Amino acid sequence: MSILSPDDHVLDDDAPVSSYLARFASPRSIALVGASNNPLKWGHRILFNIIEGAYEGRLYPVNPKESEILGLKAYPSVADLPEVPDVALVCVPASAAADALEEAAQAGVRAVAMITAGFAETGNQEAESRLVEVANRWGLAMVGPNSMGFFSARAHARAMMASPRPEPGGVAFLSQSGNVGSQGLGRGHLHGTGFSLFFSVGNAATLDWADYLDFLTDDEKTRVIALYMEGAHDGERLLRSLARAVAVKPVVLTKGGRTGEGSRAAQSHTAALATPEVLFEGVVKQSGAILSNSIEEMMDVATALDVAPLPKGSRVGIITWGGGWGVLATDACVAAGLEVPALSAETVAAIDQLLPPYWSKDNPVDLVGGLDHAAHLEVLNILARDPGFDAILVLGLLSSTDPYLGDGTDLGLAAYRQLGIETAERSIALSQETGKLIIGVSLGGVAPPPEALGRLPVYHTPDRAVLVLARMAEHAHALARMAEPRIEFEVDRARAAELLAAVPAGASLSERESLELLGAYGIPTVGWELCESLEGASDAAARLGFPVVAKACGRGIAHKTERGLVVAGIRNPEELARAWETLHARLGDDAAEGILVQAMLSSAREFTVGLLRDPVFGPCVMFGQGGIFAEAARDVSFRTADLSIADAREMISQVRASALLGPLRGEPAVDVEVLAGMLVRLGRLGVDFPQIAEIDVNPVLVPAGSPSAVDALVVTR
User: Fold this and answer.
1) Which end of the chain is more exposed for a tag (fewer CB within 10 A), N or C?
2) Low-confidence winner among 54-63, 123-132, 180-189 (lowest mean pLDDT)
3) What is the per-residue pLDDT for 216?
4) From the CB of residue 69, how many other CB atoms can be counted at a distance below 10 Å?
């Protein structure tokens, strides 16, 4: 085999490095650098797993000290192989990893899984930087380092440290953690999740999340993407790739390090920059990805998305073999925001012909413990075809056995097993015919019949099934939100640019400048005027109408309320004159533009909107409860600054303070469209002007239901 230089290219010069990921999906040959005959070393375990998984390609162990490993001829180096392998796995000590990577690259390898650990995750950034330099210089696609390996169903390539035996299917799984990856694959094997691909991304030193997502979005064998992540290096690119992926196939995401303590653990685990939970949750929701709270939930949801249709709404019909599960399932549905509507008269009449006269005659449909399996299946048929339901929950009819009858000697077991099989087959057929989501729960927590695995979502408890149903309904809603057209609006960008150009970098705008900047982008503000004399202030108050508020105004003036530089409740010219004297006395030598006179509004509701520039996700907007207790309440939601009106509506509805949007204490309902428009325009400011570091608008008052900004602070960088 010839030795290459970095200038020798295997693919097109224009091909991105991530295009080499296709080699992991269909590797014709794999080399394992660091293969070993010692069963206590990972180089032995990985090779064994590849062989035991019935890999269909050519496999080359590389170890200069061995002639044969696990019955395969061993080679001294990658350069000595009879061909350039499509993929190389590197499993050598960290001190030798960069040299091994360089040797593989010189031999022509362009897709490498770096199993070796001991890099940035342990503080050894210098060693990881050397790996990155080698990979970038040669244009390598390097998975890892600190990777557990990869799996490809189409090539039967189980090239991993761990021993799960994934079944083939449509779920592609990305994990930043090796043991979480192993847990997800193992759980999938037990519960019917089929996988197309798996990558243990490790430290993601060269390939970012976006690289994997872009590849999997275009992968025809992948129908659902599931990923466990602890942090991201380029959050803005991640969100773009998530949105692109979601437009084609569902993405389910679980994030570790969502608490402060978890963030510190995540940073030491994968050296990734973590982002606060509430911001991360908001921007992921905006992308359309499904955010799950555990690996179990992620795999439950991914399995259902792979084999079942999305519900068209949130109306759930429930059929249960016993009343208690029906009660629990109903409670779970309501808590998850799903509807459990009453049965129509037509449906009650139809079921009356099948069940004893004492059945519930309502939703849930309680089968009252009957053993007429044909009647049970017909009730399922009636509910599935009822246009009043978007999804059907089947409780207790999908078990492979009776969990209480021992080892199978009882004759009743055959009947239970047959009922489970018939219910699974009927559910699958009805789902295909009606396009409705049908989810099952097995009796007593035992396994569903094999006929259901990989074809019908079945879970062990009602709450797990309802959680999956709710996530799928949320996803259907998210797709509809993302399809809404964006609304264009006019702004005075020239005036905004002029205001910002007048401020030194890193300085704050005065309140007058801040309010004027908001006005340039059409964000409604309370009426105000800047005054340089008492006479001017009196005229302004007369135009605005008493009562008014007077504030000292200047770029260097901060914490006005704490310093007594705000006088509220001014009812007449005499009180205005006293406020004028008081403010000037308290200002002392502080330079001020003047006194800002502002109409004083009264409202029982106070909100806050803002903009910040996150180090991972870039400019983001915030909405939440406002006023002096805003920081203590911590009732906020976030989206990236490039948000739509539909995004803004959703982030408003997400906070607890949204309960205040309706009519309240004699005040009309808040005009949510105006409030949403404020958020969209604020985001546009952040996108248009990268020099803005932060905007704080608190409070936003809503007298007569119309939102208006009262105080504003704009900080540049």
Assistant:
1) C
2) 180-189
3) 97
4) 20
Question: Helix, strand or coil for residue 117?
Answer: coil
CA distance 57 to 23: 12
* Angle of helix 645-654 versus helix 672-688 axis, rounded to 10: 120
Cβ partners under 8 Å of residue 22, min gap 6: 215
3-state secondary structure 52-63: HCCCCCEEEEEC
Written as six digits, the tokens of 16 are 């991105």
Contact 453, 411 (CB under 8 A): no
CB 33 within 8 A of CB 69: no
Choose between 467 and 270: higher pLDDT: 467
Question: 627 near 714, Cβ under 8 Å?
Answer: no
Instruction: Give the separation between CA 49 and CA 268, rounded to whole angstroms.
Output: 29
Q: Does residue 13 carry a pLDDT above 60?
A: no
Distance, in Å, from the CA atom of 462 to the CA atom of 475, rounded to the nearest integer, reads 20
Pairwise CA distance, residues 648 & 65, whole Å: 63
pLDDT tens track for 518-528 = 999 999 999 99
Is residue 595 within 8 Å of 583, Cβ to Cβ?
yes
Q: CA nearest 338: which of 459, 482, 476?
A: 476
Please give the DSSP secondary-structure letter assigned to residue 75: B
Phi, psi of 603 (to 5 degrees): -155, 140
CA-atom Rg of the chain in angstroms:
31
Judged by phi (left if over 0) then psi (alpha if -120 to 50, else beta), residue 149 lies in left
Cβ count near 8 (within 10 Å): 13
Q: Distance between CA atoms of 443 and 402, rounded to whole angstroms?
A: 7
Contacts of 205 (CB under 8 A, 6+ apart): 119, 120, 128, 131, 132, 135, 142, 144, 145
**Per-residue DSSP letters for 615-679?**
TTTEEEEEEEE-STTHHHH--EEEEESS--HHHHHHHHHHSGGGGGSS-BTTBPPP-HHHHHHHH
**Residue 474 amino acid letter:** E
Q: What letter does residue 96 receive in the DSSP assignment? A: H
448-to-222, 400, 461 alpha-carbon distances in Å: 25, 5, 12
Distance CA 416, CA 413 (A): 5
For 604-649, how does the pLDDT look when each residue is reduced to its tens digit (9 = 90+)?
899 999 999 999 999 999 999 988 777 777 889 999 999 999 999 9
Cα separation, 484 vs 357, in Å, equals 48
Q: For residue 45, what pLDDT is reported?
A: 97
Of 222, 285, 255, 256, the C-alpha closest to 471 is: 285
Q: Which two tokens stand for residue 71?
A: 């019955």
- pTM for the structure as a whole: 0.90
The model's pLDDT over 324-359, given as tens digits with 9 standing for 90+, comes to 999 999 999 999 999 999 999 999 999 999 999 999
- The gap between the terminal CA atoms of the chain, to the nearest Å, is 55
d(CA 409, CA 604): 70
**pLDDT at position 261:** 54
The C-alpha atoms of residue 469 and residue 204 are separated, in whole angstroms, by: 33
Cα-based distances in Å from 230 to 34, 251, 268, 298, 663? 28, 16, 10, 15, 42
The SS3 assignment for 189 reads helix
Provide the pLDDT for residue 666.
84
pLDDT over 80 at 217, yes or no: yes
Is there a contact between 123 and 139 (Cβ–Cβ < 8 Å)?
Answer: no
CB 707 within 8 Å of CB 670: yes
CB contact at 8 A, 147 and 271: no
d(CA 291, CA 277): 11
Give the torsion sign (CA, 412, 418, 421, 424): negative
Q: Once rounded to an integer, what is the mean pLDDT over residues 120-129?
A: 94
